[in-house]
Amino acid sequence: MGEDRRKRASEIASLRLGIDLGLTLVDTAEMYGDGDTEELVGEALVGRRDRAFVVSKVLPSNASRAGTIAACERSLKRLQTDRIDLYLLHWRGGVPLADTLSGFDALIKAGKIRQWGVSNFDADDMEELREIASGDAVATNQVLYNLTRRGIEFDLLPSCQRDGIPIMAYSPIEQGRVLRHAAVKRIASDLGVSAAQVALAWVLREPHVIAIPKAGTEEHVRDNLASLDVRLTQDNLADLDRAFPPPKRKQSLDMI
Q1: Which residue among 139, 158, 193 closes a domain?
Q2: Which of 33, 73, 126, 135 is the least buried, fewest Cβ under 10 Å from its Cβ?
Q3: How far apart are CA 43 and CA 167, in angstroms?
Q4: Among the options 32, 87, 145, 170, which is catalytic?
Q5: 186 in helix, strand or coil?
Q6: Are 62 and 175 contained in the same domain?
Q7: If we measure between CA atoms, which residue out of 56, 132, 49, 53 comes closest to residue 98?
Q8: Could you tell me if 134 and 74 lie in one domain?
Q9: pLDDT at position 216, please?
Q10: Considering Cα of 244, then 247, then 248, then 251, what sign does the dihedral take?
Q11: pLDDT score recorded for residue 95
């Protein structure tokens, strides 16, 4: 969002509607639109900030202790807020994790962020993270997860669930490509719901998994909201397993 001025009014309206309907987690990052997305989110949150849970991310190139603090200050300014509820390292880079965590700790002490987490971390990355002082304070891991990207089910998802670390699933409908699959369309027709609602309900079937689908229009927001009421049957789930087999071995972590 925020990259096409012609869509700005519609995107702001959709964000505001989502918050008004109770979809209060808003995910963004300094990378998105080179900051333009954060600015759009900031505008949308005027008068609604206290009802929103804002997530943003620092680029690995900015993730030194001082760089993390400076990046957060820039994000706060664009977001027109005094705090970020959850601040993530966008992916691993060359900066030692201990340096990034030191920056996160300083931001928490200053009241600039409330919690910190990571994104695009595989199981071994999470293991390394927990060995660092204060690493056990990680609040979430945001990763690519949908019907066509099930690799995390082999090791990462079970280990995070065991440790009580929620997974945030980005691209939960694979940028719309999942919706064209015959099995998804058939189940949607049988249940009388949209294909997107089936795909989102499948992601949300797992405990401690959050889906963060993009919603640039008010119609899209309402469709996403309705997915919370979709209950997939055991037969539905079995059909989806046949169409999208779960992993049988360790896979490299997918990223887009």
Answers
A1: 139
A2: 73
A3: 28
A4: 32
A5: helix
A6: no
A7: 132
A8: yes
A9: 85
A10: positive
A11: 97
Q: Nearest Cα to 163, choosing from 104, 205, 208?
A: 208
Answer whether 80's CB lies under 8 Å from 43's CB.
yes
Residues 253 and 199 in one domain: yes
- Given 118, 139, 160, which residue is the final one in a domain? 139
Instruction: Find, among 205, 201, 142, the residue nearest to 173 by Cα.
Output: 201
Model confidence band, residue 81 (pLDDT cutoffs 50, 70, 90):
very high
Q: How far apart are CA 82 and CA 42, in angstroms?
A: 11
Give all strands (DSSP E) within 90-223, no chain letters: 113-119, 141-144, 167-170, 209-212
32 is catalytic: yes
With beta carbons less than 8 A apart as the criterion, state whether 44 and 10 touch: no
Give residue 207's pLDDT.
Answer: 87
Rounded Cα distance, 51 and 74, in Å: 22
Q: From CA 54, how far away is CA 17, in angstroms rounded?
A: 15
- The pLDDT tens digits for 7-63 are 999 999 999 999 999 999 999 999 999 999 999 999 999 999 999 999 999 999 999
For the chain, what is the domain count?
2
Q: How confident is the model at residue 220 (pLDDT cuts 50, 70, 90)?
A: very high
Judge whether 119 and 142 are in contact, CB under 8 Å: yes
Question: Domain of 247?
Answer: 144-256
With a CB cutoff of 8 Å and minimum separation 6, the contacts of 246 are 150, 153, 154
pLDDT of residue 4: 85
Give the position of tokens 């046949």.
Answer: 242
